[in-house]
User: Which sequence fits this backbone?
């Protein structure tokens, strides 16, 4: 049981971080703001993947596909049917949940490496499906809906660099941030509650979980659907931020890996880990781009190298590393709190799913 | 009970604090607002009609809705240009374009720079990698325009890639000059801020093929492979349109995924048609892959391929499969001895030296294309009466160039108020495996002004 003092401290820290994130678009130019917004939607997708992989132990390398489902749902509704972005969200939620559940059912029969392979297939298949049925810019699967602009009631909040031209990127950033905060709180409450305990129980001891009245199949499918909803919403937000939905073999695959990397780098099965991981990964990606002039081919290699180094130094992610430091400090100092919480075992070490 | 009450109080307090801070944050003025004001001031002083300089054959571009600053990208005596092209991934061979461009700009800069409206400027180019993925091109160009504040976009590679940035380009009114694609789209007069490069428009390449066959083999059968995007579609639609009314017959067609250009199964299937002509509406690796596959089938058609494939790297990859391949070329082959004997060639060689022969092989037509396009760009800047986006774009609409870079002797690249296509003079060439370069098989073909007439309207305005 957490003391109310440490709880208040955590709340205070969250408020300060959100406040700092809220002023980002006032400090950075439109391109940088877009980079920050990118980190937000990747964080959301990573949060979703963490619910599935971190808490429930099901590995997915196919979340780029769910992300794409959300992105295309929003983009097509906005582009071809003149929907407002916000109105597309309920459809995104329903569609991604359905697709997630559809993948979740066959996933009941396989686990570990086999599940990784099946979801990998999903990521490989998705661009082909899109290429077949979506006809966007240039006959390819690129859909570019009109960019979301600031509503008139909010004009007082955003900058106006030219008369009558509002800095809409600031508005889009705040929309993304708001969505992220809501989804973060939701994920936090979910994993601390009954459903979260069921997720962990099924991950660690499926048979034992069944004996105490948990239906492992239901929990697993629900985890897939919920995780897909997070990824779908992230995809929808990517359309809000970048103004384009796209699915190419390399891109969908890269997104899927990126989400997984964000989860692992931040710390699996921790609420805040994927968020930290997403910001880190997006920052590293931007920082390594064009690092060596004239040799853009090297950028991904440097990015990969840094990630390997990261995992070597912090094998349990950033949050795991902080916990280890905190534990050490506590061991040295007086003990004030009993570590009675469910220990967060990184899924990659968990039984039955180690690659 | 007490702790639950405390928790709920904390929760409400948290919510209030977040909202309060968010409101304050939103309403407050960050450093960006100050920066914005500077943009606003410079934008207002220079916006206006944007009429470059009088003249009868002028195109008046409406700039009243433009959101960009027409003098962005010029600071002191430097003009900053931006480009996005594949420098990694499957399409990385296109990165050689950049080397050719840089070599030419370096040469001009070393000689004092380009003279625009009586003042000398040096040219700087910011290049971003997009791996040929259109969504990355869009992100790159957003950065180039909004953060790097480039004066103009230059030689952005790819049809879909340029389509992806088209609405942004026309909203900001940043010139997208010499787009490295032969798509007929760039003749769409609704988008005055886009200009295609000297590549022969794909529909014109098909016209050249049809004319060639009509003269030599009027009842030939044709089998074709196309990239599954608008690039490939331009060849397909043009071919269907132009064989109408002739005795030529299309007997089989196949499409391949441009992201995974493995074409073996398609070529095997096409071989069963045993057609007289094999048309390659493919680009980059799609070409050598198809040519290599062709050799394994025993089918021996006349091969006509997209001009975008006539690069040394790709020809080398095709091995013996490249022998006898025909294509339309707007420029001289930099590997031909007649070209290497030309006076400017030594300057070209010297300028390429710093990049090394592997990154910028002088006998690669992709490098030569970059060099020539850079020469056209410099020429365009020199012709502009004012160093301002609208003025340069206006000048590009009534533009004439001869004898620049690797242009064919006697050829002219022109645009006019009614004709926005540049690369309409070219010749057909055939690759000789023994000689290792392309030999002309027709004299210079002057199709100036014809692209708009022969191209199906859907390919221009679609």
Assistant:
């Amino acid at each position: 049981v957490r003391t109310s003092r440490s709880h208040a401290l955590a709340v205070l820290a969250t408020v300060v971080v959100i406040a700092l994130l809220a002023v980002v678009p006032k400090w950075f130019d439109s391109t940088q703001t877009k980079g920050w917004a990118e980190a937000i939607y990747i964080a959301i997708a990573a949060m979703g993947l963490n619910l599935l992989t971190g808490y429930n132990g099901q590995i997915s390398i196919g979340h780029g596909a769910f992300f794409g489902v959300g992105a295309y749902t929003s983009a097509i509704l906005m582009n071809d049917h003149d929907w407002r972005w916000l109105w597309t969200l309920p459809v995104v939620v329903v569609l991604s949940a359905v697709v997630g559940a559809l993948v979740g059912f066959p996933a009941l029969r396989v686990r570990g490496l086999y599940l990784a392979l099946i979801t990998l297939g999903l990521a490989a298949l998705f661009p082909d499906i899109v290429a077949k049925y979506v006809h966007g810019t240039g006959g390819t699967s690129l859909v570019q809906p009109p960019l979301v602009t600031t509503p008139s009631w909010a004009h007082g909040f955003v900058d106006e660099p030219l008369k009558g031209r509002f800095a809409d990127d600031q508005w889009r950033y705040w929309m993304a941030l708001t969505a992220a905060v809501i989804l973060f709180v939701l994920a936090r409450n979910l994993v601390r509650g009954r459903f979260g305990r069921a997720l962990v129980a099924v991950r660690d001891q499926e048979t034992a979980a069944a004996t105490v009245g948990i239906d492992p199949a239901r929990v697993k499918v629900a985890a897939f659907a919920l995780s897909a909803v997070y990824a779908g919403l992230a995809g929808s937000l990517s359309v809000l931020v970048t103004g384009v939905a796209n699915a190419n073999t390399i891109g969908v695959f890269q997104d899927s890996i990126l989400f997984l990397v964000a989860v692992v780098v931040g710390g699996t099965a921790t609420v805040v880990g994927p968020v930290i991981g997403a910001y880190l990964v997006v920052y590293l990606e931007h920082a390594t781009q064009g690092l060596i002039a004239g040799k853009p081919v090297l950028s991904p290699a440097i990015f990969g190298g840094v990630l390997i180094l990261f995992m070597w130094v912090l094998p349990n992610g950033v949050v795991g590393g902080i916990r280890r430091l905190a534990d050490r400090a506590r061991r040295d100092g007086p003990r004030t709190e009993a570590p009675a919480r469910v220990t967060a075992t990184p899924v990659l070490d968990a039984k039955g799913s180690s690659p | 009970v007490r702790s639950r009450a405390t928790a709920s109080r904390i929760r409400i307090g948290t919510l209030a604090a977040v909202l309060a801070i968010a409101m304050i944050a939103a309403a407050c003025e960050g450093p960006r607002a100050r920066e914005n004001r500077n943009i606003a001031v410079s934008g207002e002083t220079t916006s206006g009609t944007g009429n470059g300089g009088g003249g009868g054959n002028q195109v008046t571009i409406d700039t009243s809705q433009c959101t960009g600053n027409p003098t962005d990208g010029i600071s002191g005596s430097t003009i900053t240009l931006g480009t996005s092209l594949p420098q990694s991934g499957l399409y990385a061979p296109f990165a050689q374009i950049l080397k050719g461009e840089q070599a030419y700009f370096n040469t001009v800069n070393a000689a004092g720079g380009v003279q625009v409206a009586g003042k000398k400027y040096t040219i700087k180019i910011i290049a971003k990698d997009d791996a040929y993925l259109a969504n990355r091109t869009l992100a790159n160009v957003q950065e180039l325009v909004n953060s790097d504040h480039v004066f103009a976009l230059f030689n952005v590679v790819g049809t879909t890639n340029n389509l992806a940035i088209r609405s942004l380009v026309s909203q900001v009114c940043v010139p997208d000059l010499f787009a490295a694609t032969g798509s007929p789209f760039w003749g769409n007069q609704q988008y005055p801020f886009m200009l295609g490069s000297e590549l022969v428009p794909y529909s014109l390449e098909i016209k050249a093929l049809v004319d060639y066959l009509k003269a030599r083999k009027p009842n030939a059968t044709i089998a074709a492979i196309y990239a599954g995007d608008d690039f490939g579609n331009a060849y397909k639609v043009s071919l269907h349109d132009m064989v109408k009314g002739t005795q030529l017959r299309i007997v089989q067609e196949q499409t391949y995924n441009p992201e995974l250009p493995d074409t073996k199964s398609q070529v095997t299937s096409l071989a069963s048609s045993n057609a007289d002509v094999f048309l390659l509406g493919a680009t980059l690796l799609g070409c050598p892959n198809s040519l290599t596959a062709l050799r394994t089938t025993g089918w021996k058609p006349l091969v006509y391929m997209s001009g975008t494939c006539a690069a040394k790297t790709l020809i080398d990859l095709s091995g013996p499969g490249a022998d006898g391949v025909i294509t339309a070329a707007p420029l001289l082959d930099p590997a031909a001895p007649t070209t290497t004997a030309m006076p400017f060639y030594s300057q070209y060689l010297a300028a390429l030296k710093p990049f090394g022969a592997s990154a910028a092989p002088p006998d690669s037509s992709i490098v030569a294309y970059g060099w020539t396009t850079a020469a056209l760009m410099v020429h365009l800047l020199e012709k502009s009466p004012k160093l301002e986006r609208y003025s340069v774009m206006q000048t590009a609409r009534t533009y004439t160039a001869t004898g620049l870079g690797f242009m064919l002797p006697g050829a002219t690249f022109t645009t006019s108020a009614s004709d926005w296509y540049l690369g309409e003079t070219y010749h057909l060439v055939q690759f000789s495996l023994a000689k290792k370069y392309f030999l002309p098989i027709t004299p210079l073909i002057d199709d100036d002004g014809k692209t708009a007439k022969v191209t199906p309207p859907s390919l221009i305005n679609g």
